[in-house]
Amino acid sequence: MEAAYNSSTTASSETSVVICNYNYERFIASAIDSVLAQSVAPCQLIIVDDGSTDGSRAIIDRYSEHGIVKVFKENGGQCSAYNVGLEHVTGKYVIFLDSDDRLLPTAIEKVEKSFAPGVSKVHYPLELIDANGKRLGTRIPILCDSGDVKSLILSGYEYLSPPASGNAYLASALRKAFPIPLHPTERYPADFFAIFAAPFFGSVVTVAEAQGEYRTHLSRGQTIGFGNAGSAVGSQQRNVDILASWLSPIVGEQLPPKLLNFSVLKVAYAQTAVSADGFATRFTSCLRMLPSMLKSLWRREGMSIPTRSVLTMWAILLPLMPRPVALKAAIYVCNPDSR
User: Which residues does 159 contact at the CB level (< 8 Å), separation at least 6?
Assistant: First the structure.
């Protein structure tokens, strides 16, 4: 294992980048290259390979001359990779980059300019790219929450944040909460726990411009749900349960038993509205789901009243539409990759 990081760029930073990889031999070189191309070099590049069985490790070995920290471990899931990665971090700040995503050249530079005393997380939008790295002309998320988002979480709402590769953390803040709890058989999305732990140790700042690229592996418009990980309400509630039991004793505040998330709720609602069940069953199920979804929608700060009004009408009309029409409307609203 090499403990130093050598870069050809002239400026250096206080940011460590941790790339977590599992069987992404097709993309890992692109992720590494995006870190090496930063306008301000990271002080450290750590690659945690979580037991890959493809050619990933041979590709990672090709970068040994750059002084990366290589951690080759048995497969334990993303939470395990985050835990191990943070143990090796020496920088003041840390970015966890998924190995199929990329950083844009100014990411570290913009992030470090945005950190200030009292800030525990800086996040930024991600440009969508396809499996071949082609930009798709949209970005996620459209809106990001900033400031004291802890109060939002404690009031029962998930705050608006990019996924894993769109976040930079104050490393000392994460260490107050880590390690993320592990399960012997089930695997959880590590970014969820980092994203929701950080606000309990400081405020959140948004960089307006995209500073990374998020790779989607599905064909455009193929599914109602967006992203490469499942977003079912059941798995989301499981994550919230684990978050509350893990984090509440650490921060000395009881996290709520549920966190409303419009993005998750609208997908579940749309999937119900276009299901193969009979009209009466679909309509009744949607009617039960509607209040929570609209509550989460109208809480969203930064979204205009006309936009909220249009989405409210979409929600009311969706279960009443013929299924082929409803499917198109559901995909358009729920999957930004389809637009």
Answer: 145, 149, 152, 153, 199, 204
The sign one gets for the Cα dihedral 101, 102, 106, 112 is positive
- What are the structural domains of the chain? 15-221 (3.90.550.10), 262-338 (no CATH)
Report which of residues 178 and 2 the model is more confident about. 178
The answer, yes or no, to whether the previous bond of 141 is cis (omega within 30 of 0) is: yes
Q: What is the pLDDT of residues 42-69, one digit of tens each?
A: 999 999 999 999 999 999 999 998 989 9
Q: Is the pLDDT of residue 7 over 50?
A: no
Find tokens 């800030």 and name the residue: 119
- The yes-or-no verdict on residue 229 having pLDDT over 80 is no
Q: DSSP per residue over 198-249, as a string?
A: GGGGSEEEE-SS--EEEE--SPTT--SS-SSS---HHHHHHHHHHHHHHHHH
Q: Kindly state the helix (H) or strand (E) to which residue 156 belongs, with its residue range.
A: none
Backbone angles phi, psi at 172, to 5 degrees: -65, -30
pTM of the model: 0.89
Q: pLDDT at position 233, please?
A: 62
Q: At which residue do the structure tokens 């993005």 appear?
A: 263
Q: Residue 58: in which H helix or E strand, if any?
A: helix 56-61
The answer to whether 170 and 92 are in contact (CB under 8 A) is yes
Q: Give CA–CA dist 283/265, Å, rounded.
A: 16
Q: Name the residue with higher pLDDT: 324 or 247.
A: 247
